[in-house]
Design brief:
427 residues; alpha/beta; Rossmann fold; Helicase, Ruva Protein, domain 3; Zinc Finger, Delta Prime, domain 3; 4 domains; six-stranded mixed sheet; 21 helices; 6 strands; 50% helix; elongated
């Protein structure tokens, strides 16, 4: 369940069994070997200084899979000459944590520090995370938590207040390419030839995940035909690009946000791209359809009233036919919404009206507009030319308030509104 490495073994090749996966064998041992994350490890940065001085602090490493969270934690431990304890919150519980803390107490009596690396820390519930607080607060362990989820949502505030949060970025294609070439230079695939095109394909399709790229290279080398690892063989080893997408996590919200903004910007290609990312990532198509309906009113509005019909029809089609065929009405709606003229006038109008009511309260309608025949003197507009009458329909204290102001995309509505206001003497 748990594993204990001293600082020397963390730096030594002997710490990694010869039969370990290539990604483990290629794990960098110090900052000089680390690839990527320059934004965190620039000269003079807090994290780099802590590592170089051997004075680590508790931290939460937040980033996508394969970005180097475990590697960075081991480098921190090695630089501090500290024991390195590692647990995965997916498998471990409070009993395993207590054992780690017991060993840390024994080491402290001998004058040695302990780095406790807890992978997938977001998997621990509140009680489990709370159990770590005393050990972190009194310095029994330096905690390094790793998570692919947003720590602000998944890690207790009390624990966050005792740790620095560092956000790791997805490795670039160039970073992954560097790691793959380093593996080849160090003797991986010595028995077979590997074409440059094959290596470049693995780097391009790994989605910034070094572990995925190295695993695919290892598989390609082990199963390569006589002619070596070609482009086709590398593609077969990788199968398909791994999508970092979680329907309940940051990528879910980031991607739908990007879809909304791309569609609002009238870019159908970008809209289709983010739609494809969501579909390939397993997003619920009903969620996508709901966002389309909202956007049709919020961002297109009366600049093209048909947009709402298109979006609601797409939503109905999704409910009726499901995936994979539902991708077609979703794509149709995405293109239509992208290219439709845009107006947020309706959104601004209801916001202004609700704000007015919150500030001023709800006034009684004029007596002539009330139901049940309680009022007298109602003047139906159908009795007047153009179906427009001069009778006031606002409450007395609200007369003259304006909430809806059509923009340039709603020219026809602007003309009609001017006509209405003139008939009511509001010019």
């Amino acid at each position: 369940m748990d594993s204990l490495f001293d600082a020397d073994s963390a730096r030594s090749d002997a710490a990694v069994p010869p039969g370990a996966p290539l990604a483990a064998r290629m794990r960098p041992h110090d900052l000089a070997e680390l690839v990527g994350q320059e934004h965190l490890l620039a000269e003079g940065s807090a994290l780099r200084t802590a590592i170089e001085q051997g004075t680590p602090h508790s931290m939460i490493l937040h980033g996508p899979t394969g970005s180097g969270k475990t590697t960075l934690a081991r480098i921190v431990a090695a630089s501090a000459d500290a024991a390195f304890e590692e647990l995965s919150a997916v498998q471990a519980g409070r009993a395993e944590v207590r054992e780690v803390l017991r060993r840390a107490e024994e080491r402290r009596r001998g004058g040695r520090a302990t780095i406790f690396f807890l992978d997938e820390i977001h998997r621990f519930n509140k009680a489990q995370q709370d159990a770590l607080l005393p050990a972190v607060e009194e310095g029994l362990v330096t905690l390094i938590g790793a998570t692919t989820e947003n720590p602000s949502f998944e890690v207790n505030g009390a624990l966050l207040s005792r740790a620095r949060v560092y956000e790791l970025e997805e490795l670039s294609e160039a970073d992954v390419l560097t790691l793959l070439r380093r593996a080849l230079e160090q003797g991986e695939c010595d028995e077979v030839a590997v074409t440059d095109e094959a290596v470049e394909l693995l780097a391009a399709r790994a989605g910034g995940d070094a572990r995925t790229a190295l695993a695919a290279l290892e598989l390609a080398c082990r199963t390569a035909p006589e002619e070596g690892v070609t482009l086709a063989h590398a593609e077969d080893a990788l199968q398909r690009r791994i999508l970092h997408y979680d329907r309940a996590a940051d990528r879910h919200y980031d991607t739908i946000s990007a879809w909304i903004k791309a569609t609002r910007a009238s870019d159908p290609d970008a809209s289709l791209y983010y739609l494809a990312v969501m579909l390939e990532g397993g997003e619920d198509p009903r969620f996508i359809a709901r966002r389309m309906v909202i956007l049709a009113s919020e961002d297109v509005g009366n600049a093209d009233p048909q947009a709402l019909s298109v979006a609601t029809a797409a939503a109905a089609a999704v409910d009726r036919i499901g995936l994979p065929e539902a991708q077609f009405p979703l794509a149709q709606a995405a293109v239509y919404l992208s290219l439709a003229p845009k107006s947020d006038a309706a959104k601004r109008a209801i916001g202004a009206a609700r704000g007015f009511v919150r500030d001023n309260g709800a006034q009684q309608p004029p007596v002539q507009l009330r139901s049940g025949g309680r009022g007298e003197g109602y003047d139906s507009p159908h009795r007047h030319p153009g179906h427009l009458g001069a009778q006031e329909v606002m409450p007395e204290r609200v007369v003259g308030a304006r909430f809806y102001e059509p923009d340039e995309a709603e020219a026809a509505l602007a003309r009609r509104l001017a006509e209405v206001r003139r008939a009511r003497g509001r010019d």
